[in-house]
Amino acid sequence: MSKIRVAVVGYGTIGSRLADGVAVQDDMELVGVADVAPNLSLRALQEIGAPFKVFFVDEEKKDKFAAAGVQLAGSLDDLLSQVDVALDATPGGVGARMKDLYSKHNVKAIFQGGEKDDIADVFFHGYANYENGIGKDFLKLTSCNTTGLVRAVDALDRVVGVEKVAITIIRRVADPGDTHRGLVDVLQVEKVPNHQCVDLMKIMPHVQATGLLVHTPVTHGHIINLLATPKEPIGVEEVISIFKQHPRIRVVKISDGFDSNAAFFQYARHLGAKRADMYEIGVWEECVGLSGNDVMFAIYIPQEAVVIPETIDGIRACVPMQTDRLEAVGLTNKYLRMQARA
Amino acid sequence: MSKIRVAVVGYGTIGSRLADGVAVQDDMELVGVADVAPNLSLRALQEIGAPFKVFFVDEEKKDKFAAAGVQLAGSLDDLLSQVDVALDATPGGVGARMKDLYSKHNVKAIFQGGEKDDIADVFFHGYANYENGIGKDFLKLTSCNTTGLVRAVDALDRVVGVEKVAITIIRRVADPGDTHRGLVDVLQVEKVPNHQCVDLMKIMPHVQATGLLVHTPVTHGHIINLLATPKEPIGVEEVISIFKQHPRIRVVKISDGFDSNAAFFQYARHLGAKRADMYEIGVWEECVGLSGNDVMFAIYIPQEAVVIPETIDGIRACVPMQTDRLEAVGLTNKYLRMQARA
Amino acid sequence: MSKIRVAVVGYGTIGSRLADGVAVQDDMELVGVADVAPNLSLRALQEIGAPFKVFFVDEEKKDKFAAAGVQLAGSLDDLLSQVDVALDATPGGVGARMKDLYSKHNVKAIFQGGEKDDIADVFFHGYANYENGIGKDFLKLTSCNTTGLVRAVDALDRVVGVEKVAITIIRRVADPGDTHRGLVDVLQVEKVPNHQCVDLMKIMPHVQATGLLVHTPVTHGHIINLLATPKEPIGVEEVISIFKQHPRIRVVKISDGFDSNAAFFQYARHLGAKRADMYEIGVWEECVGLSGNDVMFAIYIPQEAVVIPETIDGIRACVPMQTDRLEAVGLTNKYLRMQARA
Amino acid sequence: MSKIRVAVVGYGTIGSRLADGVAVQDDMELVGVADVAPNLSLRALQEIGAPFKVFFVDEEKKDKFAAAGVQLAGSLDDLLSQVDVALDATPGGVGARMKDLYSKHNVKAIFQGGEKDDIADVFFHGYANYENGIGKDFLKLTSCNTTGLVRAVDALDRVVGVEKVAITIIRRVADPGDTHRGLVDVLQVEKVPNHQCVDLMKIMPHVQATGLLVHTPVTHGHIINLLATPKEPIGVEEVISIFKQHPRIRVVKISDGFDSNAAFFQYARHLGAKRADMYEIGVWEECVGLSGNDVMFAIYIPQEAVVIPETIDGIRACVPMQTDRLEAVGLTNKYLRMQARA
């Protein structure tokens, strides 16, 4: 089978990471990336030797790339004419305008969580509902929080069954370096239930979910505290064991120094991962507990990179490259070097 | 009945507020406040005309008060010889050393949450276990989070009964102006269960509690998200109604502008409360929801002032000034101008 | 002379404080305040007994006041028909639209720093160029940073003459409780020179100014570090003495506990000032130093309240109530209880 | 010449980066790193295949490494017996205790800025006073702020001569992930002059320096605003040109997206640098300006990595490997891939 050709449209926080993720998949070819302007990510890409081809979106802003020393390989139309699948990583809401273009080029597309649900045929999560995405033209990924949330709940659900979850999202309000949004010395609350619960129920309709979301002035990842009602009693050790066996969940200990969301970020820096990115969600062993039969556990969501694996799963589903869920996610994991640690 | 004479030992964050709270109780007399050094609170007290008498703790540091222009009325011994009850608001752990002094002067004492439980005869909360404190020599108050937590759970419990609670504490890590502690761009987690759950079960042994605590880089109050399992089903409106009828709970709406912890602080500033202090815990109407039969609701804890009413209740119990719980808390509320808004 | 009748248009961060400031001027009458919606400040105003009359701006949104329990005394037109001077505290840019209304009612108006300079006849500062505002119809106040900056530079300039200043503004990026703006873990820089330098030169054209502004994720006041080149050598003690003699400058010591911007806020809380407001700028004695003949000193700018005195000076100038600068600012100071501490 | 053998003692924020820096110097051999406990950096080192040998410091805590899966190559004594130079990156103050050990093993040592000056024969900066370090047994590096400050001032000084500098340090108060220190919503001031000025004068005794330091609640690097008095007039373009020609200074534009300290960090993440480390200090073109003849410019200090190049210069000096300043720093730069961009 020849390699599936992929374009990444939008080279920002998510797009730049999607490009790296696709580039290491042996059965995919990253044909190029497109953006409207030579942002810092693209300037850095040029400084390290331009490993990816760059395409411009807007003819009128083409000159800015030259001024920034960023070489262009053509227009977005040129790019789309060469690919099978487009990963749309444009700002929330822009994807809807891009959809016609993808259709025109007869290219399948995967949208991110910032778009409305009706943009796509399927609201998709690689582990939880892979089958629904097989062969579809347009998929929409879950947002970063929902992606991680579903990953964890699905892991438990496939072993013991989960009846309902009540969650508290302690949300990072900005990405590192953002100057266009933020909070100072404020915990901002949103109405119960938050949209992530609603989204979880769309992906996993057999689970009842509600929750509160609180925005906090930090950048290095969300923390979600869950209270899951299992269909049968389960012990703390068993819960930890289930998570340890999941290739996309990293179980750590506070006593080892993982005492915060930022500790994961620091650890990833020391691992030498590009941008200190981490694809796994985290679980603290000491933060798993029981409330009667309900299981309490907290997860860490690295908001910048967590959706990369599930988006790549989406490519596998929509083409389709694989029709078996575990084969598909297994390949994504293999190429991203994610593996169970238990 | 003559007024009960009260001393406040330690004029910091809690002590300065206890002094103001006692000063407005018609049946109490604030004899004076004591501290080891002329801190900013004492300097400000002097600038506004020295409404309270100030006593020194340490003979050797006496001169510092003069240098700061703070007039002294005598030593801590002098102060304790004139009072019935001492409110200990010294830094955590110091109270244990003060206890002998209180005993020597035959003065009853109420310690704050930073002390160990065994310092006191009773671990006390005005609304939840007033009876246990009646006539005792030494009481220990719950910490700020536990005080608010118990207030809310007790309110529900007395109406429908509460079986268990699972909580997530989103904790402010420093008080405004603190330079001796803090966090930057970090959400620090602690082991499940946090001590506030354990403390709640000491005060309300019939309720099972567990929870997670996450430190966040803010100063204007904690937020706790609770999932309470009631003994019988209860609706959202009923829960809101119960809270509205409680004189120490303020129910607000996000849609009115109360969209954060800091909104309460801002509101208190506009109310003209001294130091923008608020004795009530807060509840957001839009953050009350159901998860099956379980009730989810979030409370706001103004960490600097929330323990003042319950500490004053403690004076009423230990003397005892009142033996009836509702009479006692009712008087505290009346003098602090706290009342139900429903 | 009968009292000058004043309206405050916009009851937000600045407007609510202007109202309080005007209300205590014995020679002025606060006729009322107007706003488009019952924000938290107005709700709090109602809760404390509605000391000021409230007028609505927008007929269509009138019902919202009733829903919030805020009693109305009439429309903005009603208010303007009863006053001599309007203090415009609407959001930046809105003032320009209000100007016609003020003209129509033949009311003088004072705009805040968020408006463009050409909205007014004079760019005004009570201490530095009072004379320029006398009898004018429209004044524009300097922004919070510029107000404090000019206060300090003018103080030095009147004693020794200041040739030039080079400044570094360490700017608080949001007010307490703001959720519509903010920064997290970022120091955002702006081009040299910042607008405050340019503004200073408009008010004090004989002083050359340049500087850098850096936004920082805090809420309790700006800090500006200045390097002023005096016309003749001056010692550290003399500089401190000049500041101590200024009624709108508070000189403090780090060694007394004033170790930050927030320490001033905390101190004001303990003083019992409404909202913990402080009209004075602050100077730390230990932060005054020399660099050759140049004088380095840092000032604290309480961004919420600092412009109140100079705005009230503006009322005195534009009517005019006083034609002598020192008489005018002296009256403002007297009624605001500001006085030299040397 | 055989390779100079180097040990890194302390594998924390600085030590882990020193190890990486030494490892890429073709004329040096990193024999190993030592620490007292298997911290997160060492655990990550193990996870990526243990590229460096690890030695334990404390016999009693040896078992913890095994428990963490970190393989040991021996004791600190074993390590020191195999090297020519030890880079001491232990916590501030510990270095003094280590000095005897280095002497015992006849190993030269380079201490970091947290130690007292008298620990070393020379207070060292690779660019500014390389000659003073040649052949010495013990060097002490400047702290991160001083290292960057001296780099920039020395660059100007060698071209036009600098008479004096007045600086404002806007200091990050914690490193990413720190939970043992921090500030929330506070700008903490320190006395004028700050120690960095005093340190600069020790390295460059012919330059007069003073300044203010303000701690701010951020983690991604300090910003220093300087006002330098040159010996002869110099234009903005010339200043920018001098900085562009310096291999350890990166000149950027706000208009390109570098609008903050964190923008440098983000850019380094996209460059793929390990841990997003950046050795260069930054300068914003738009933040260079003139105040009369004085030059104002702001520099960015990446506190975690900025001292690595100068520390490696120190190895070259103390052995000595090179006696020519420019040859030495040129080799360090070459191996660290730092080069002028003009």
Question: What is the topological layout?
Answer:
Four copies of one chain form a homotetramer.
Chain A: E1 4-9, H1 13-23, E2 28-35, H2 40-47, E3 54-56, H3 62-67, E4 74-75, H4 76-80, E5 85-88, H5 94-104, E6 108-111, E7 122-124, H6 130-133, E8 138-141, H7 144-160, E9 162-172, E10 188-189, H8 195-203, E11 208-216, E12 222-230, H9 236-244, E13 249-252, H10 261-271, E14 281-284, E15 289-291, E16 294-301, H11 307-318, H12 325-336
Parallel strand pairs in A: 1-2, 1-5, 2-3, 3-4, 5-6, 6-8, 7-8, 9-11, 13-14
Antiparallel strand pairs in A: 9-12, 10-11, 12-16, 14-16, 15-16
Report what the structure shows.
The structure is a homotetramer of 342-residue chains. By secondary structure, chain A is α/β, with parallel strands linked by helices. Chain A has helices at 13-23, 40-47, 62-67, 76-80, 94-104, 130-133, 144-160, 195-203, 236-244, 261-271, 307-318, 325-336; strands spanning 4-9, 28-35, 54-56, 74-75, 85-88, 108-111, 122-124, 138-141, 162-172, 188-189, 208-216, 222-230, 249-252, 281-284, 289-291, 294-301. Chain A has an 8-stranded parallel β-sheet, with helices on both faces. In chain A, strands 9, 10, 11, 12, 13, 14, 15 and 16 form an 8-stranded mixed β-sheet that branches. In chain A, strand 15 (289-291) and strand 16 (294-301) form a beta hairpin. In chain A, helix 1 crosses helix 11 (307-318), helix 7 crosses helix 8 and helix 11 (307-318) packs across helix 12 (325-336).
